[in-house]
Design brief:
DNA polymerase, domain 1; about 5% strand; mainly alpha; 3-stranded antiparallel beta sheet; 2 domains; hpI Integrase, Chain A
Length: about 280
């Protein structure tokens, strides 16, 4: 069954089960979005979708700044679709941000960053070291990381260019460390085209990156969040952070600012209340 046939059959099934025209329209829109995402991430067929694919898709939606309410609605569509393809298990045990925590952002502390970098350097895998530095020091999405080619990197100017499927692009300066470890990896592996590849010289997928980082108990999205949070923490403007992160909506970037403001408010509350107290 082709991609279009799968969707057509799903819509007919919805109609047969008494769904309204508006509901069918909404379900069609969301399944088409899922299909487009699957096509850009390994050309996975809808009927062959797995639990890990759904989980990665949810992470991507969260990364785009979709609200918990919106994601919950999308999950409702996916649950119905999973019943249609007789694979309800693909929606089991997903990690989804609860509604009450929609404004919280999970990031690494400075100590956790140092521990992660120390651990991955200790394993001495140049590719994996370069991957972590790229995620942590450029904030690129994992899908963008996987799509990178050697031609997208200018080691002399210390810049990496991120290109989207829509034809747009953004340039991100590389830190000295990211530039060094990426250059070292490329030279030692004689990289010519795809930047990050497997031992079989195949371009790494998002799932591959997640598997690599699982050993260090961190998800690539957390490294992107940490990148944005650290910039905000250093006083970088929202406009600059938004541009570097490739946020289409600056309100997504503002989430990191709100998170930092809350921390400062807590510190200020203690400081103002107990400033005049002396140690007895």
């Amino acid at each position: 069954m082709t991609k279009s046939n799968t969707i057509d059959e799903f819509l007919k099934w919805l109609e047969k089960n008494g769904k309204s025209d508006n509901t069918i329209f909404t379900y069609r829109r969301e399944i088409l979005k899922l299909q487009e995402w699957l096509s850009s991430n390994g050309d996975i067929l809808l009927k062959e979708i797995k639990q890990n694919d759904i989980q990665t898709y949810i992470y991507e939606l969260e990364n785009q700044g979709k609200s918990s309410v919106t994601i919950d609605k999308i999950l409702g569509v996916l649950r119905t679709f999973s019943k249609f393809i007789k694979k309800p298990e693909i929606l089991f045990d997903l990690e989804v941000k609860p509604l009450e925590k929609k404004d919280e952002i999970d990031v690494l502390t400075e100590v956790e960053c140092a521990t992660l970098l120390s651990s991955i350097k200790k394993d001495n895998n140049k590719r994996n070291i370069a991957i972590v530095y790229m995620l942590l020091h450029t904030g690129v999405r994992v899908s963008e990381l996987c799509a990178l080619n050697l031609s997208d990197v200018d080691f002399d100017k210390k810049i990496v260019t991120i290109r989207s499927s829509t034809g747009s692009s953004r340039s991100i300066p590389l830190s000295d460390e990211a530039n060094y470890y990426l250059n070292s990896y490329c030279k030692s592996n004689n990289i010519k085209d795809a930047l990050f590849t497997s031992r079989r010289n195949e371009r790494l997928t998002e799932r591959s990156i997640q598997y690599i980082l699982k050993k260090y108990n961190v998800h690539p999205h957390k490294l992107r969040h940490t990148f944005c949070h650290q910039l905000i923490d250093k006083g970088i403007s929202l406009e600059v952070v938004s541009k570097l992160a490739g946020h289409k909506d600056i309100n997504v970037t503002k989430r990191y600012s709100k998170s930092r403001i809350k921390e400062l408010e807590l510190e200020e509350a203690i400081h103002k209340t107990f400033y005049n107290d002396t140690l007895g």
